[in-house]
Write a structure and sequence with these properties.
Layout (H helix, E strand, L loop, with lengths): L2 H15 L2 E2 H8 L3 H13 L4 E3 L2 E3 L7 H4 L4 H12 L7 E4 L3 H9 L5 E5 L2 H7 L5 E5 L3 E3 L4 E3 L1 H8 L3 E6 L3 E2 L5 E3 L5 H9 L1 E7 L11 E4 L6 E4 L5 H9 L3 E4 L1
Parallel strand pairs: 4-5, 4-9, 5-6, 9-12, 12-14, 14-15
Antiparallel strand pairs: 1-3, 2-3, 7-8, 10-11, 11-13
Helix pairs in contact: 2-3, 5-6, 6-7, 8-9
């Protein structure tokens, strides 16, 4: 069995059945425990699972917005401040879902900008700022994560253009692949990329490698990465080869 196929089956088993032991996975796939251990190391490096004593577990998906918003606030604020400094008055800004985009929105008060977003918390933050032209994308509401998704959101984005996209992520693989934990968000993120001149990835220290089962884009679709941590050598090389500027706060 090819390694890629084994990896798919391991992830499927963990998502459907919860945490599993190496011995159980070995029996299910008909390979040695040593092979399974190597596979688990590789998948953990890619941010697709977490190894635990004797086995592994996959991330259960996005945490509610309110929980994530309280984590690594200082790191996110530093990234947000650096990102905000890239934008000139009069420009249009597309803000992705997530808590770092929300921290960025807080940095935009008093600016003369157009802000487009599917992030309900960004909308709430900027709704009373009369200097900002605010465009809220339509779509189905994900209440726990305070975002709008679906074909209506994607259709809206096809009618719009932005100078900047500030993109969030749940994880960045060593090859520079931008990942997300929730499949339903991926088409919206891809539509945002197509609608923007410049794509800036906002990624704090927890996102290298982070988590995520669904690929959003590769490094060649990014222009800048803003982070608060030194990027590992493999990922940094991938960004350099793609011409991506890495900005560390």
């Amino acid at each position: 069995m090819l390694a890629e196929r084994r990896h798919q089956l391991i992830l499927r088993a963990l998502r459907s059945g919860g945490p599993a032991a190496v011995t159980d996975l070995s029996e299910q796939l008909g390979v040695s425990p040593a092979t399974i251990r190597r596979d688990l190391v590789k998948l953990e490096e890619e941010g697709l699972l977490t190894r635990v004593h004797g086995g592994a577990v996959v991330d259960e998906g996005d945490q509610p917005f309110a929980e994530v918003a309280e984590v690594r606030v200082a790191e996110k604020d530093a990234i947000a401040a650096r990102a905000a400094s890239m934008v000139r008055d009069g420009q249009s800004v597309l803000l992705d879902i997530g808590t770092t985009a929300y921290r960025l929105a807080r940095q935009l008060h008093g600016r003369r900008l157009t802000v487009i977003t599917s992030n309900l918390v960004v909308y709430e933050e900027l709704a009373d700022d009369e200097g900002i032209e605010l465009v809220l994308l339509g779509g189905m509401v994900r209440r726990e994560y305070r975002s709008l998704v679906g074909f209506l959101t994607e259709d809206n984005l096809r009618q719009l253009h932005a100078d900047w996209l500030f993109l969030g992520t749940s994880g960045v693989r060593p090859g520079g692949q931008v990942m997300d934990t929730t499949v339903v968000e991926v088409p919206v993120k891809r539509a945002m990329i197509k609608a923007s001149d410049k794509v800036v990835l906002l990624a704090d220290s927890a996102k290298f490698p982070g988590t995520g089962m669904a690929r959003v884009c590769g490094p060649r679709e990014l222009d800048v990465v803003v982070t608060n941590t030194p990027v590992d050598g493999t990922t940094c090389s991938s960004f350099e080869e793609a011409g991506v500027e890495v900005v560390t706060t």
